[in-house]
Structures are given as C-alpha cells and as structure tokens.
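Quick review question:
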C-alpha cells in the first residue's frame, strides 16, 4: 500500500521541480513557429511513443498494423509527424485510437523514476522527455475521428442504461 508521504518524497511540492517540464511544453508548442523540422525534432520522443502506442495496441488487438511512419509529411491541414495504419472495425478502433492516453501514466512514472533523482543537465533532459510524453498523450484529431463512432455508441448505451435504471 502506498502512503501519501512516499508520494511527496517522489514528487516534491516545490514548484521549481515542475518548471522545466512546463518550459519544455511551452517550447514544444512554440517551436512550430520555427518550422517543421525544429518542431519535429523537439517532439520526436513523444511522436515515437504516440505512434508505438497505436502500433502496440493494434498489434495486440489483431488489427494488422503497419510499422509506424516517423518522417514528417505535409498534409492539407499542416504536418503529420507520424502515422500507423491498421484494419479494424469501430469497436477495436476505439482503444487503438485512444492508446496514446496511456502515455500520461508513463510520463508520471518517468518523472518519478528518472527526473526526480536526476541533477544538472540530466534533470532537464528528463524534463524534456516527460514534456514530450505528456504532449504525445493527447490523441490527435485523426485519433478522435477514428474513435468517434464507438464513443457515440457508448454514449447512447450509457444514456439508455441511465434512463432505464
């Protein structure tokens, strides 16, 4: 059983501990103004994790995923930093599309395991990785479009259940 004191030992209450992660998140967001390549390089750890989350989930669910593409590609709406294609119905598409959300607990674990005990430039390196994982944990608009049909069915079933009980 975990106790609150142990969690406080791992995650300091001092705001200075979190500042490097916040700065890295802001720099990642602002870097797209410098061009696609600076943004792609800053986001690379998160892009790799995001696409491999889709890939691993699709593989486990038998959706025949393609190996992740990690080279940026221009689209009609901007840039796509990576992609994974797979074949699945809308039920299996839901966990595949939303798989990057699992990166948030990974970011917290990384922060506790690697960033917290690190000092100097290594601390900042881990802060960048944590920020990349946090940023990558947000499903893209394409991910939400894939998940939408299943989310709509779940919402209807939940509303019907709530109404009938």
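Suggested answer, residue by residue:
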């Amino acid at each position: 059983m975990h106790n609150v004191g142990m969690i406080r030992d791992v995650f300091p209450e001092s705001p200075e501990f979190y500042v490097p992660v916040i700065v890295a998140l802001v720099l990642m967001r602002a870097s797209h103004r410098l061009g696609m390549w600076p943004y792609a390089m800053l986001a690379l750890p998160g892009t790799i994790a995001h696409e491999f989350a889709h890939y691993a989930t699709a593989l486990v669910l038998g959706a025949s995923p393609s190996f992740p593409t990690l080279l940026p590609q221009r689209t009609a709406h901007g840039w796509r930093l990576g992609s994974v294609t797979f074949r699945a119905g809308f039920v299996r598409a839901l966990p595949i599309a939303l798989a990057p959300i699992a990166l948030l607990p990974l970011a917290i674990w990384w922060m506790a395991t690697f960033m917290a005990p690190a000092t100097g430039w290594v601390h900042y390196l881990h802060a960048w990785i944590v920020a990349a994982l946090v940023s990558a944990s947000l499903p893209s608009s394409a991910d939400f479009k894939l998940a939408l049909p299943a989310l709509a069915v779940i919402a209807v079933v939940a509303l019907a259940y709530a109404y009938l009980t």
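Why it works: Helices lie at 4-10, 19-31, 36-60, 90-97, 103-115, 120-136, 141-164. The chain has one domain: 15-164.
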